[in-house]
Amino acid sequence: MGAIDIGGTSIKTAISDEYGTLSNRKSYPTEALKGGLHLMNKILMICQEMQAVENLQGIAISSAGHVDAVKGTIVYATDTIPGYTGMNVCEQVTERLKLPASIENDVNCTALGEQWLGAARHMSDFLTVALGTGIGGALFMNGSLYRGATFSGGEIGHMILYPGGKVCTCSQAGCYERYASSAALALLVSDKFGELELPAFFDLVREGDQVANSIFTIWIDDLTTGLGSLVQILNPSAIVIGGGISEQGSFLQEAIQTSLVAKLMPHHKESLVLTLAEKGNDANLLGAVRHFLNNNPVHND
Question: Residue 299: pLDDT band by 50, 70, 90 thresholds?
């Protein structure tokens, strides 16, 4: 089947079999500011290109935004992609290609992919936290993905960390992602170091630079304050940290673990596992495939 991951910057695609083996990976610019209609036409073009070279049994899509995975529509998308809200993606793909299609929120797909073939294999109650421009969340409860009443379950980036704090893109003030996302860390770094990329910043932290470590400590504290609250409310067996920043590996994992454990009650400390996502950029594609397979039988010819 064709797998598509629609992000604000790029559209990643691959061909997948029923076991999650990905091939023929490609990437296209999203051109998000050109709007939802332009994006939809681009998705249809990409699908047709895949169909021309592969015997596809369906199209599996991961997308930014609040997604009604039952109807195949975008319930809500920010102005990052103007006019994307309300678009029935699956209906248009099926009409054009005469193939079944499925769509799911991108962070939900991260969780699905990690549970299928990654860090959350065999886990039934876990929280996925994706650190990037914002903070995305996805929650598995009793073995099932929790989507919420209006398909916006897991929007942890917009819980309030500091009432009356920094204004967020959602128009609220003090949102979690304004303090604990990768983008928030990048702003803290730029205030002190100018145009320093995050990998170089982490090198400074490892080398013991005092200013870098001060920034890192503040950011980790904000990140784990939010995580601590989520642990108290949800009591997950594990937290899976995803996003590009997770490539920092055990160094980052240990810093989060140490700070988080200090904020938890004893019985949470004993049972909680904190781990980093394993599937990287493939997680969303794999999750889209898993979601498709959960809802559509695949026949081997």
Answer: low
